[in-house]
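Weekly modeling sync, notes
Attendees: S.R. (lead), two postdocs, one rotation student

Agenda item 3: backlog of single-chain predictions. S.R. asked that every request posted to the team notebook include the full sequence so nobody has to chase files. The rotation student volunteered to paste the first one in as an example of the format we agreed on. Action items at the bottom.

Example entry:
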Amino acid sequence: MRCFLGLDLAVSEKLALDSWRQQALPEITSRMPCYHGDRKLGNGKLAGKKGKQKTGSREFTNTAPYAVDPANYHITLCFLGQITPRQHEALMNELDNLAHSPFSVDLDSSGIWNGPKILFAAPSSPPNELMQLARSARKAARRAAIEVDSREYKPHVTVVRKATTALPMPLYAPHVDVQASAFHLFESVSTPQGVRYPIRQSWPLKHAMTVREKLRRGITDE
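Predicted structure, as returned to the notebook:
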C-alpha cells in the first residue's frame, strides 16, 4: 500500500481554494493530462491503437501545467511510500497513542517548487500545533520501521502540477482558513481518471483540557 499521513480539507475549504485558483491563475485549465501510447476516451477510459478500452501501463506526455482536482487537496504530514502489512499494523498502534489538539491553518501565501514542479498554497506562518503533529507523525513512522524524509517540513497544498517558473504567479494571494480536527492515513491509488487519495484511517484531534475547562469554553470533542 502506497500511502501518507495528512490533513484533509472540508468541502467548503476545497471549493474556496479552487475558486482562488481559478481567479488568480486564469491561465491554468482544469483537465487531465494526456497519456502516451493509449488514447484517452471521452468517458475517461483508455483506448489502444484499435480503440479497445484498456487500463494498462501509461505515461504522461503533456508538459503543460494543469490544475489539481480539488477533491485531492490535502496537507501532507508525513509521506510513507510503499509499506508492508506488518509496518501498517505497527504504525496504527503508534498513531493510536498520539494526542494533539485541533488547530487552524491559514493558507495565505503561494509559491512554486521547481523540483517537483508544483504550484502550492501554504501558510506563511505555520502554527506550532501543525509542526508538532508533523514531528509526531514522523517519529511514529520511524518507530514502525518506516523510512521517512528527514528534510525540513514545509506544509502546503498542491494546486497546480507541472508548474515551472515560466508560469505567471497568481494575481493575488490565497486566504483560506483550514480547520484541522483530525488527521488521516491516505492511500495513493492510481485510476484511469487519475490518482485518488481515499482515507483509510482517521484519528481525531482533541483539546487537552479538563472537563471543567471544556465546559467553561463550550468545547466538545464528539
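Discussion: group reviewed the output briefly. The radius of gyration is 19 Å.
Action items: rotation student to repeat for the remaining queue; S.R. to check formatting next week.
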